[in-house]
Amino acid sequence: MAVFKAYMKIARKNFWMILMYLGIFFAVTAMFQMFAGEETQDYSARSVPVGIVDDDRGEAAAGLAAYIGKTNEVVMLDKDRESMQEDLFYRNVEYIVRIPENFFETCILGEESLKVTSVPGTYSGHYVEQQIDNFVNFARVYAAAGFSEEEIADAAADRESASVELMDFSGNEGGTPAYVFYYRYLPYLFLSVLCYVMGYILMGFGRGSLPQRMKASAVPARRQSLEGFAASGVLAISLWLIATLAALVLYSREFLNNSAAGWYLINSFALLLVSLSLAYFVGTLVKTSDALNGIVNILGLGMCFLCGVFVEMDYLSGPVRKAAQFLPVYWYESVNTLLARYGDSAGNVMTQILSGIGIQVLFAAALVCLTLAAAKRKERAV
Amino acid sequence: MIKIENLVKRYGNTVALDHFNLNVKEGEIFGLLGPNGSGKTTAINCMLALLKFDRGSIKIMGEEMAPDNYRVKRQIGIVMQDVAVFEELNVRDNIDYFCSLYVSDKGKRKELVEEAIRFAGLEDYRKAYPKKLSGGLLRRLNIACGVAHKPRLIILDEPTVAVDPQSRNRILEGICELSRQGSTIVYTSHYMEEVEQICTRIAIMDHGREIAVGTKEELKSMIKTGETVTIEAVILAGEELERVRELPGVYEVRYEGQTLTVKCTKGKHNLIHILNFLNEREIPFGRVFSELPTLNDVFLEITGKQLRD
């Protein structure tokens, strides 16, 4: 087992580096989990101090003021330019609506818009504008149906907010469980650690006349390869076990209660195969430590940014997503997204899940073929 | 120990080995001497079954050498021309690794590794990594890795390239020690002094062929030159130079920059004849050297070119 032991000895030399990547992985996961945790809070309407200058004093104008007042703090203002500016300056109000004379005729029946003023650099204006548009559209529909100004104002006052029921198939009650983030960032750990460690080992075995020296030794070439594969397998599976055990320790009940937990493990194992085969490919080609560092960073970070690891897939532009389909991590993240979305109902999207995992395995097989071709070419060149 | 017959190896149109023959006996320190590109490393690689050859046969320890003949490979130690060690392992681990390719018993290996460390004089560098070693120490590590398992046959391919004189002497002493311990050694080099110093028999190679084989004395006896006399700071006229050429035993005279080089055939009193001639003519002269023929002279006379060309 000389080759096996040598792999392990060289891998042990990278112990601190592996620890560093594990540290980065857990820190990044914890950080994103914290930020994402705020996202899962309930939605609530925001109250904005709105100033209203009512030049109309009609029923419709009163209806609009009452409608805005349902969710905002309404302050009735005089038609004095200086005092209005002062109110805006001291933030007594963030938004001023001027209801013109003949509001019903000009703005509801006609096409005229309301004059508004808002504090520069605040988004509250858009929020109030949306409410005004809602009221005007509502009033226009009623007016078109022949309702009078008073009737429209009454209807608006009686109008209730529409209630929206969100369907959640994941069994997570609308929230995103922490282990989803953990598994989302896993490619960074697998790609970085395996590419670096395996690259470092294979670079050592491929340096100078060492391959020739090994070929001339008393250990058959096939046995050398088998011992090498066994050692790589042990290293990769150890990493997978560490990642899985950490997930079980950190999210034990929450993770195990999810019926899709097994699929998370299978998907991460497929990713492990891809990472290992990519590591072999990198290790066969790379010649110096500096080049290895560069390639590991480009591959690890590049794939993580392009394939929805660090930036959620929904935020990626169409062309980026299309390009990312040529990378294995994209398929890993696609499966993860499905598992997060469907959770307990993952059976409904089983075809997509299996395809995603299958594509990863195909990527791994393709990389193995590329590695064999590269190794053969390298051997011929010696 | 090694028997090579009519070995032919081509790289495209280039013939690297051209009906190359070799016979190395057990216990010898056999030197393969030749200029760069003469086919020494190709011959070694064929012997180790690292290269396929086009024609001929190689027998080592009485067995046909083949890539899967691990019984023979187990008894061979290899020291490659380029240092073949792991930069990621320290001195001890490197020797242990290469030894473990031949010896699986851990206890026995421990002893062998320690012995190899002592043999190479690397006691103070056990934990050092190859990058921290000087060129000479690195070469010693390379040798220790190749010989730690105490093989019957050791093949050393130019092990002293780019090595300081101190390390070179240590390496050469080590090779003699390995021979004393019973190993047969094949040593390739283009440094004729080294080969002359340690080898019991020598084959001189050029253009993929062995052009002469024998002990150094046998090789030197193959050529006309018996002695080369060099006289510095001497002023000679054309007629005097002709007279020197006519002296007994002299067969070649060269006169350049007031230095006279006279090549003489084997025989006694060559130097006395020349000095008497100069005294008779009252020709003043400076320093005088007399050298016996070297392997370079052998190579020069057989091929018409210098070994270091």
Automatic annotation (TrEMBL), chain A:
Ranges where the ABC-2 type transporter transmembrane domain occurs: 16-372
Coiled coil start-end: none
Record keyword Transferase present: no
Keyword set, alphabetical order: Membrane, Transmembrane, Transmembrane helix
InterPro entries: ABC2_TM
Transmembrane segments: 15-36, 185-205, 226-251, 263-282, 294-311, 353-375
Pfam families: ABC2_membrane_3 (PF12698)
Membrane topology: Multi-pass membrane protein
Record localization: Membrane
Protein name stated in the entry: ABC transporter permease
TrEMBL record, chain B:
Pfam families membership: ABC_tran (PF00005), DrrA1-3_C (PF13732)
Protein origin, superkingdom: Bacteria
Keyword Nucleotide-binding: yes
Chain ranges of the ABC transporter domain: 2-232
PANTHER family: LINEARMYCIN RESISTANCE ATP-BINDING PROTEIN LNRL (PTHR43582)
Annotated GO MF terms: ATP binding
InterPro entries: AAA+_ATPase, ABC_transporter-like_ATP-bd, DrrA1/2-like_C, P-loop_NTPase
Annotated keywords: ATP-binding, Nucleotide-binding, Transport
Taxonomic lineage: Bacteria, Bacillati, Bacillota, Clostridia, Eubacteriales
Full protein name: ABC transporter ATP-binding protein
Tagged with keyword ATP-binding: yes
